[in-house]
Amino acid sequence: SIAILLYLARKFKTPDHWYPSDLQKRARVDEYLSWQHVSIRGKASKLFLTKMLLPILTGQPVPPEKLETVTEELNVVLKQFEEKFLQDKPFIAGSEVSLADLVALVELMQPLGVGHNPFEDRPKLAAWRKRVEEALGKQLFQEAHEGILNASNV
């Protein structure tokens, strides 16, 4: 999915902020896109699968200690994300939204879809989410995430 996003950004010459031509900004985007596979993506989808799919497959509720472990793993990478990538900037690569922000926020919508709010008690993360949503357009963002946000209703 990352490879196709980069391909599309280059092929259709999207606005520069999505995949910046400035080498330092692009390096920040690339750094995040490489890091996220085993961090936010891995931990957010693990929480989603544990809360949603595991009970369906086993017919049993998830043991609380298992859910606690998976939740703590996500909390660790969220702290790393805030400290390493967001720091005190509005977006991952600086002052404008990029593909890195889009990918990061998409991953964090999975836990939200199963009733775990990764933005709760994290004002920096919540403010960043709001900026990304506003940059994309709230209506488009909600439409794009309607399925995952209603996953618990299936």
Automatic annotation (TrEMBL):
Transmembrane segments: none annotated. Keywords: Cytoplasm, Transferase. One of its GO terms (molecular function) is glutathione transferase activity. Its main location: cytoplasm. GO terms for biological process: glutathione metabolic process. Residues 22-154 form the GST C-terminal domain. One of its GO terms (cellular component) is cytoplasm. It is an enzyme of class 2 (transferase). It catalyses: RX + glutathione = an S-substituted glutathione + a halide anion + H(+). Its EC number is 2.5.1.18. It comes from the Eukaryota. This is glutathione transferase. It comes from Eurystomus gularis. The lineage of its organism: Eukaryota, Metazoa, Chordata, Craniata, Vertebrata.
